[in-house]
Amino acid sequence: MPSSSFRAGAREGFRSFLPMSVGLIPWALVTGMAMISTGFTPVQAMGMNVIVFAGTAQLGTLPLIGIGAPLWLIAVTALALNLRFIIFSAAIAQGFRGVGAPLRWYSGHLLTDGVFACCFEKMLTVDDPRWRLGYYLAPSLWSWLLWQVFALIGVFAAGSIPKHWSLEFMATIALLVLLVPLARQRPMLVAALSSGATAILLRGMPLRLGLIVAIVVGILAGFAAEHWHTKVEAA
Amino acid sequence: MNAEATLWLTFVLLGLATTLPRASFIVLGGRVRLPSVVQRALRYAPAAALAAIVVPDVLVVGGDFAPLNPKLAGVVAAVAAALLSRNPWLPFIAGMAVLLGLRALAGG
Question: Which residues in chain A have Cβ-Cβ distances shorter than 8 Å to B76?
Answer without folding.
Answer: none
